[in-house]
From TrEMBL:
Chain segments carrying region Disordered: 144-163
Start-end of Basic and acidic residues biased regions: 151-163
Residues passing through the membrane, by range: none
Signal sequence bounds: none
Record Pfam families: DDE_Tnp_IS1595, Zn_ribbon_IS1595
SMART domains xrefs: DDE_Tnp_IS1595
InterPro entries per the UniProt record, alphabetical: IS1016-like_transposase (IPR053164), Tnp_ISXO2-like (IPR024445), Transposase_Zn_ribbon (IPR024442)
Naturally occurring in which organism (per UniProt): Flavipsychrobacter stenotrophus
Protein name: ISXO2-like transposase domain-containing protein
Residue intervals of the ISXO2-like transposase domain: 128-276
Length: 311
């Protein structure tokens, strides 16, 4: 395996210059079979400054970073790799302010860099959950009293208020977690999502919320009535998904302090990725993120919603 490191200093020692960084990216991106990011052609010329497609219909030049989260970056890949290691190894994440201080970059660059790393955590074909799956929703949004004056909501009492974002989560026992922002907690909203992410016939464990009453149509269903002081039923509970929400909110309060609803899904994917890869070493999580960077370019305009066509 390329690069054996267990700490950030060891990582920086290994990636001593840009050539080593580019070779590492090329290996994890193409695995010895370089392809054109524009047309997919696999006959490539190596040039003094990178690569050139040999296809007569293309003939475009490109570097190892084109078509990845690193495209058009002004930061050294070594700095990027340090950021990736910090993001993927810190259980509760790292804020843009802290990352800016650690890397010696300005806050805007750190914020953009973090969101580009989070882009790698989106799965186009996520694994389906099976066996026993616990499901629960949570309300995300800081306490109104702690918000800046321009973000305070009138008549907000906290709790399950309409100024918070609802997130549904499903977690396979001993397995992975899937999260999704939802507009409401009705059965018409929640049940189609469960049908999409859980294998039919699996055991689904929820609380007593009425939005889950029809879960038994496609799944075996156990409802644990929290309102009656019940937290397990026949040894089944929603403790594991509730534990994930606890971890997420510790990161929210302790690290980020506030998450924009516009970008909330990116933060959720970040926490989900770290949780779902919890059994592998930090080094392997780092290399997996570098591999996943291929085809995940994120522009500033798309991130900040200035590019209407990309919305």
């Amino acid at each position: 395996m390329l690069g054996q490191f267990k700490t950030l200093p060891q990582l920086l020692d290994y990636f001593r210059d840009e050539l080593v960084c580019k070779d590492y990216l090329a290996t994890h991106r193409w695995n010895g079979n370089t392809t054109c990011p524009f047309c997919g052609h696999d006959h490539i010329y190596i040039t003094n400054r990178g690569y050139k497609c040999a296809s007569k219909a293309c003939h475009k030049k490109f570097s190892v970073t084109v078509g990845t989260i690193f495209e058009n970056t002004k930061l050294p890949l070594r700095t990027w790799y340090a950021a990736i290691y910090l993001v993927t190894s810190h259980k509760k994440g790292i804020s843009s302010l802290q990352l800016a201080r650690d890397l010696g970059v300005d806050k805007k660059n750190a914020w953009f860099l973090l969101h580009r790393i989070r882009e790698t955590f989106f799965d186009e074909t996520p694994k389906l959950l099976t066996d026993v799956v616990s499901v629960d929703e949570t309300f995300v949004g800081g306490k109104n009293k702690n918000r800046h004056a321009d973000k305070k909501k009138e008549n907000s009492q906290g709790g399950h208020s309409d100024d918070k974002t609802i997130v549904m989560g499903a977690m396979q026992i001993g397995g992975i977690v899937v999260t999704q922002i939802v507009p409401d907690r009705t059965a018409d909203t929640l049940l189609p999502i469960l049908d999409k992410v859980i294998v039919k016939g699996s055991m689904v464990v929820t609380d007593e919320h009425t939005g889950y009453f029809r879960v038994c149509d496609n799944f075996f269903h156990i409802a644990v009535n929290h309102k009656q002081g019940m937290y397990t039923k026949n040894a089944f509970s929603t403790n594991n998904i509730e534990g994930f929400w606890s971890l997420f909110k510790r990161g929210y309060i302790g690290i980020y302090h506030w998450m924009s609803p516009i970008h909330l899904d990116r933060y959720l994917k970040e926490f989900s990725y770290r949780y779902n890869s919890r059994t592998i070493a930090d080094m392997n999580r780092f290399s997996d993120t570098v591999t996943r960077s291929n085809g995940k370019r994120l522009t500033w305009n798309r991130l900040t919603r200035k590019d209407v066509a990309a919305i």
